[in-house]
Amino acid sequence: MAPGGPPDVELVQGGPVGYPGVHVEADVAFDPVSVSVALPTGRDLRFGTQTLPDHQLTVQNTSGQTTTYTGVLSADGTTLVFSDVDLALPGTTVLWVAVSAGHDAPLGATGLTFTVGGKTSPSTTIVVMPGFTVSPGGDPVTAERGGDPVYPGVEVRNNGTQGIPPQTVIVTLPAGADMRFGTPTSPDHQLTVWKAGGNTTVYAGSISADGQSLTFSDVDLEVANVGSQSVMWVCVSAADTTPVGPTSVEFSVGGRTSPSTTVDVI
């Protein structure tokens, strides 16, 4: 028995299911066996999706014919047990289940554990991808020392997830650059989120004691649909002593960090 299926199964946080599995090879037939499938600990995976659980095992024989079995879910929701599973041997049989990743699933590689007739194997490798990405948004902006404010920002893109919950956004000024949010006479502690179509939402943030960062709670990223994009920005200005040259503001959106649009200080 060995991992089965494609080389990797990619799951997007909060996205649709994938089908990791194993394959079993034998030259002789076997009596029906018990099969258990366990989720990895602490990886926020589930059988099916949060709104549509799936407790089935699919068995595909050498000829490509499939049979499905309904399993019993453990009390903690981490293991499915299937009884009297016909492995359709001799030949090569592939077994798989449907799993998805939650919005908080850690990124990177993981996998399920299949136990078939007492023998254990990891599944196809599962690679968890981010539900949304954050990147610099818009063209560079020019900030004159001691001059008018500018509005650097980032772009947020939905990578294939549904129901993205509100996020915490933290915006941090570049260290040692003597910049501020707004201007000395008109502080600005707001975050503006623009979604495709032109509608904007403004959030009021709380400023840190040192004045270097703003924190915004429960921000709707406005990327409800797969592939949709939004842009968010803040208001900053350069002091008379701000070093000349390119810099940027750092945005942390739900733990994903990106520099803003480049700010060219002149």
What's this entry about, in short?
The protein is an all-beta fold and 266 residues long. The protein has strands at residues 2-4, 8-12, 21-26, 33-38, 45-47, 56-60, 66-70, 72-73, 79-85, 91-96, 99-101, 108-110, 113-116, 119-122, 125-129, 132-137, 141-143, 153-158, 167-172, 179-181, 190-195, 200-204, 206-207, 213-219, 229-233, 236-238, 245-247, 250-253, 256-259, 263-265.
Main sheet: which strands, in order across?
Answer: 1-3-10-6-7
Shape: elongated
Strands, count = 30
Tally of domains: 2
CATH topology of the largest domain: Immunoglobulin-like
**Biggest pleated sheet:** 5 strands, antiparallel
Under CATH at level 1, the class of the largest domain stands as: Mainly Beta
- Structural class assignment: mainly beta
Mean pLDDT: 94
Number of helices: 0
| Beta content | over 45%
